[in-house]
Every structure is written in structure tokens, then in C-alpha cells.
């Protein structure tokens, strides 16, 4: 009987906020048939690989990394991965590199992953609106932060930025959004998903 449960704990951890949350991103990418994906804030290439597999060989993933060390980690994880040739890595702080992001034919992104939820998160979502279109899906990670996001008096810039972006998601007329809490190997956290509606 215990054999039936082999791997279930790992699966739940991976699906609900752990390292394997990339599988969720892959499924979401395929569900919306995304061919152009923007990833803001990759620290390694795990999610990038899952997104690249989701868009397939004819798709494109543009991933923004803050420094050359993170770029090296992304490149290392992409080595030998199918669809790796579909990935473009842009190095530098996202608040400055987003100004230069465009797809080859100036088309909109179908999915935007904001993995760098910090004091600039609201700016990232505003850029997702500029670079997206009605129907674009925006995913934000790390929006619960062990419950710290509920602390209105927090001086932590990441918590304050998360509170600001959640307020933006709740009030922006062009976005319809929901946030979910997760528990897994990453601890108590969560993610938000938004749809650009106009």
C-alpha cells in the first residue's frame, strides 16, 4: 500500500511551491499556447528550461537576469535542453533592461513571469501591460513571504513591494487576478496569476 504513495510528497512539494514549480509554468505556457514569453528575474535556468519547453522550438523566451553570475547559471541549465535555442538572455537590472525588450517583429508577449517580486514589482507588472496584450497571462512568484505580506508596518523593501503589486493587481482596470498560498519545500509562500483583460 505504501508503494502507491511513493513520490507523492515530492510531487506535492514540487507542484506547490518547490523547485518543480517549473512544471506548473510549463503547463500554463502550453494551456495558453504561449509562443512568446518574458521572464523577469531568473536566478538560475530551471524555470527558463520549463518555459522554453512550453513554447517549443518555434517559440521565444526572453529572460532578464540581474547580473552575469545569474546569466551563467541560466546558460548552464540550458545546456542540452530542448528548445534552448529559443531563449534570449538579457543581463542587467530589469528596471533598466525592460525599456529595450521587444520581440523580433514587435509582437506582444503571451505570458510574463515576474520571478523577481521585490520593491520594483509594480513596475514589472506595468511593463507586462506595455509588452502584453488582452489575453496575456502574468504570473508573479513569492507573493506571500511566510505571511509577512500581511504586515502593513513592515520596512522590508521586498514585502512593501509585494504589498504594492498585490494592490495594483486588485485595482488595475486592465487586470483580473487571483493570489494563491502554497506550502512546500520553499516554505509558506504563494503566487499570483493575472489576465490582461483589455
UniProtKB/TrEMBL annotation:
Q: Which organism is it from?
A: Rhodococcoides trifolii
| GO molecular function, a single term | O-methyltransferase activity
Instruction: Name any one Pfam family assigned in the record.
Output: Methyltransf_3
Q: Gene3D superfamilies, per this entry?
A: Vaccinia Virus protein VP39
Provide the alphabetized UniProt keywords. Methyltransferase, S-adenosyl-L-methionine, Transferase
**Matching InterPro entries:** Cation-dep_OMT, SAM-dependent_MTases_sf, SAM_O-MeTrfase
Q: What is this protein called?
A: O-methyltransferase
Asked whether the keyword Metal-binding is assigned, the reply is no
An annotated GO BP: methylation
